[in-house]
Design a protein that fits this description.
The structure holds two protein chains of two kinds. By secondary structure, chain A is α+β, with helices and mostly antiparallel strands. Chain A folds into two domains: 4-77, Roll (Ubiquitin-like (UB roll)); 86-154, DNA polymerase, domain 1 (Orthogonal Bundle). Chain A is built from five helices and five strands. In chain A, a hairpin with a 2-residue loop joins β1 and β2 (11-15). In chain A, α2 (86-93) packs across α5 (140-154) and α3 crosses α4. The radius of gyration of chain A is 18 Å and the shape is globular. The N and C termini of chain A lie far apart (58 Å). Residues 158-181 of chain A have low confidence and may be disordered. Chain B has two domains: 2-14 and 184-332, Aldehyde oxidase/xanthine dehydrogenase, molybdopterin binding domain (Aldehyde Oxidoreductase, domain 4), CATH 3.30.365; 24-161, Aldehyde Oxidoreductase, domain 4 (2-Layer Sandwich), CATH 3.30.365.10. The mean pLDDT of chain B is 97. Classes of the chains: A alpha+beta, B alpha+beta.
Chain lengths: 181, 339
């Protein structure tokens, strides 16, 4: 078994892995990085999406050996100890995730898009997220959040972007608790 | 040719179980630092119910949502809750949380009244203070009132309450009764394009107006509505479990059980109808399941508007729509004289 040399979230690992090991199994079982999810395991759902040399891939369909010598980014490598990544912040602010199972994959698909295209249109965002299935949200707030993240990262946005969703206050007499005070 | 049509569908939906008991209980503790702890048996699955319940507890105590620590879904320690089902959490659990918060608040009022030289019924809880109604400058911080309740009066400010929606069993002879405590209402309008050569349906836009009572957290209500529409759209056009003659599912994975992706979703406009239910917590009812109820019917009506065929089976796949269009053409074609 030739050891693999893979950079994961900026740290180089030299790991022996059986040849049938998928990249997803390497990340989850050998490195304990469980952010990328095992959903369908056949490349349909996108919950295992990670970035390999900056491109979004289904880690369940890629053999670990194919990532030899490459650089992998998982959701664990996105935030710094001080702050969430601007895409994660936008997803949080716009309540773009509900159960969250698809979240790591969606956010990394969004990152691959925004790295390549700093000011995507709504249609380009829909296209970029088309490989990530979500049962909860209807994708609407994800699309809004990716627009917001594009603006935060690059100060750029498509003129046709949906209007930002404000977080209204609880409409009660005497002021409410609909938002942080 | 792609033909455009619009369809409308309305629905009502009940909150909670049909007649049967479905109680929720909750405990609210006010801490000496002015924060509160909410214990609830219900479970968060991403819909944001713990945020909403925290907001309800905060509103009852006059503190901020971030002051409320929610402990949930530990059957060893948290009070009984029937569950995150039947679109009942905001209404049923929310009512229990509100009552529990009000009981804790009553203890704070008893403690604060002598500190402020007034009667407890003259007090209100606002802006993290217990204050004299109409004289907000006469106040004590809520944490101080909590401390006084604990060490001065010897009665910690803890409230526990439960709520079970009041219902009346249906009479088996007349069918009369009150099977649910409250109902929600919605109307959705779908705009579609139908290709009359392929039968393919594209949903361009859905406008959804929902009455959920007071929207405790409007952003979360929108999330529920948008997600429900995605499920309704899949139900309408794509999703179907297929079986072979032996009863085995023949499409058991996401390659051939087709659910909506980001490319299938239309523009969605959510309209939260102003409403207030006096039996709900701060006027709230619920929003979960009802969001996907009218979607398929609105799409079916829009297909009829576009190409004049009434679809009577779901999902309304291209094959089924095209077959219906062909059948209609055949039926509409002028007949040659039989002789």
């Amino acid at each position: 078994m030739t050891p693999l040399r893979i950079t994961v979230n900026g740290r180089e690992h030299v790991l022996p892995a059986p040849p049938e090991t998928t990249l997803l199994a390497l990340l989850r079982e050998h490195l304990g990085l469980t952010g990328a999810k095992l959903g369908c395991d056949v490349g349909d759902c996108g919950a295992c999406t990670v970035l390999v040399d900056g491109l979004a891939v289904n880690a369940c369909l890629m053999l670990a050996a194919q990532a030899d010598g490459r650089s992998v980014l998982t959701i664990e490598g996105l935030a710094t100890p001080d702050a969430l990544h601007p895409i994660q912040q936008a997803f949080e602010r716009h309540a773009a995730l509900q159960c969250g199972f698809c979240g790591p994959g969606v956010i990394l698909s969004a990152k691959a898009l925004l790295d390549a295209n700093p000011a995507p249109t709504a249609a380009e965002i829909r296209e970029a997220l088309a490989g990530n299935l979500c049962r909860c949200t209807g994708y609407a707030k994800m699309i809004t959040a990716v627009h917001a993240a594009a603006q935060a990262l690059h100060g750029a946005t498509d003129e046709r972007s949906p209007r930002a969703t404000p977080v209204p206050r609880l409409p009660l007499p005497g002021g409410g608790t609909g938002g942080p005070r | 040719m792609r033909r455009r049509g619009r369809g409308i569908a309305c629905m009502w939906y009940p909150i909670g179980f049909t007649v049967s008991a479905n109680p929720s209980a909750a405990t609210v503790k006010v801490n000496e630092d002015g924060t509160a702890t909410l214990l609830t048996g219900t479970v968060e699955t991403g819909q944001g119910s713990l945020t909403v319940l925290g907001q309800i507890a905060a509103e009852a105590l006059g503190i901020a949502t971030e002051d409320v620590h929610v402990v949930s879904a530990d059957t060893d320690a948290t009070p009984m809750d029937t569950g995150a089902i039947a679109s009942r959490t905001t209404y049923v659990t929310g009512n229990a949380v509100k009552l529990a918060g009000e009981r804790a608040r009553a203890i704070l009022f008893e403690a604060a009244a002598p500190m402020l030289g007034v009667k407890p019924e003259q007090l209100e809880a606002r802006d993290r203070k217990i204050q004299v109604r109409g004289f907000p400058q006469r106040s004590v911080p809520i944490g101080e009132a909590a401390r006084h309740a604990l060490v001065g009066k010897g009665e910690p400010p803890i409230g526990t309450a439960s709520f079970n929606p009041p219902t009346v069993a249906m009479d088996p002879e007349t069918g009369q009764g009150k099977p649910f405590a409250t109902y929600v209402y919605a109307t959705q309008i779908a705009e579609v394009e139908v290709d009359d050569e392929t039968g393919e349906v594209e949903v361009l836009r859905i406008v959804a107006a929902h009455d959920c009572g007071t929207p405790i957290n409007p952003m979360l209500v929108e999330g529920q509505v948008e997600g429900g529409i995605a499920m309704g759209l899949g139900f309408a056009l794509q999703e179907e479990i297929l079986f072979d003659a032996a009863g085995r599912q023949i499409n058991p994975n996401l390659t051939n059980y087709i659910m909506p992706t980001s490319l299938d979703m239309p523009e969605i406009e959510v309209d939260i109808v102003p409403s207030y239910d006096p039996t709900g917590p701060f006027g709230a009812k619920g929003v979960g399941e009802p969001t996907s109820v009218p979607t398929a019917a609105a799409i079916a009506n829009a297909i009829y508007d576009a190409v004049g065929v009434r679809m009577t089976a779901l999902p309304m796949t291209a094959e089924r729509v095209l077959a219906a269009i062909k059948a209609k053409r055949a039926a509409d074609a002028p007949r040659l004289a039989a002789d």
